[in-house]
Protein 1
Amino acid sequence: MSFDPHALDLRFEAAKALAYEAGDVARRRFLDRGSFTIKFKGPQDYLTEVDQEVEALIAGKLARLFPGDGFIGEEGAGRDPMDGHPVWVVDPIDGTSNFAHGVPHFCISIAALVGTEIELGVIYDPMVDELFAARRGAGATINGVAMKAAATRHLKDATVEIGFNQRAGLDKYLRLIGRIAATGASTMRGGSGALGVAYVAAGRSDAYFENFINAWDCLAAIAMVKEAGGYASDFLANDGLRKGNPVLAAAPGLKDEALRLAAIEGLVP
């Protein structure tokens, strides 16, 4: 069953408005350090009440606006879609460790899928008031200005972000850092996968590698990389939506070199 493009345009506008609203909540709570407590879902897997509050806000408003749509949220909110309707994939605060430690580098990430197509992605960084947005086939923007991936053609000239979490293990992470650093590339880690991949779309970094990441952390940003002319691996392969996957995003001129270097088990180009 096909879905009316006009209906997706309405959802795109709603996602941008919701990202601003949710970001305002996150920013206010971030600045009021005594307004939340810090917990752990697992090793180095931070959780605050703000994550749950923001997800409930987004999930509730989307359910009222688009009651037939599905929903997948990092903090457990879920709803199956009616036949042919989109599925929203939301990370209420990507970069919770940064948020918890008072580091102003985190974001709200909202994507919508129809079947296996990421139809739209919206990421809002409330601390610098930047809205990244992409609509499939219509380009990607940052605060309304078109984004374009970098023109970098060699990793020796590149700035590369390497994400990490405990699921893939320390050994794979260290090997990946070693392979990338050996090319002469400058490496970094910002602590937000969504912003890390979005920065590739914006040309602020040249590539992003991570051995394992969840769908809510990267789908919106993957849409942006594709619309900004970059390369992004097929994250949805092998049930990546539910199980997670490795991810590689890169400037177009780095695609072949980055794929050869990555050697990430299970990566689907």
Note: The chain has a mean pLDDT of 91.
Protein 2
Amino acid sequence: MKDSTNEYVILGILSDKPRTGYEIQKLVKTSMGSFWDIAYSQIYPTLRMLEKEGFITKRLETNEREQNRKVYSITNEGILKLQGWLKEAAKPETFKFEVLLKIAFGDQSSEDEIIKHIEELKARTIKQLENILSIEKEMKTHLNESERSFFSILTISLGKNLHRSAIEWADSAIKLIEEHKQKSGKKP
């Protein structure tokens, strides 16, 4: 079976401390959400595969409500697998924005419709930036407690800058479209 980057995400998360599948998903959504995503439906099959291959172990815990939880921990083999991957060159980044496809084919739509798409992108990006800033603030409170927090803040820094740039681009693009409409004599 070909290795999936999601395997390494899970191994990396578990290298910090044992967690449940739900905790792994929550951590991906919050602290990695600006640059990585794993569908909830991928978490448990990946955990089962990593356990089968001996890279993680699972133990059952009972919580305060007497419910069993599966808690996963990384093994020494899992640490070695993660460390090997960390030494490899990263795959090229992918950049997929459906809204940019709609803009690229904007000659087949109205400028007002394109502006609407850009405004929606801007609104989503502002919400994501607010989330990133909230996560950064929380992580900064733990900066002296964990080396992991320092490196996580580095990733958050890029996410912040990318989101701020996207917001600036949205404002600029809308202005350019409005100017284009005026030059071409099209009615709003």
Note: The beta strands are 56-62, 68-74.
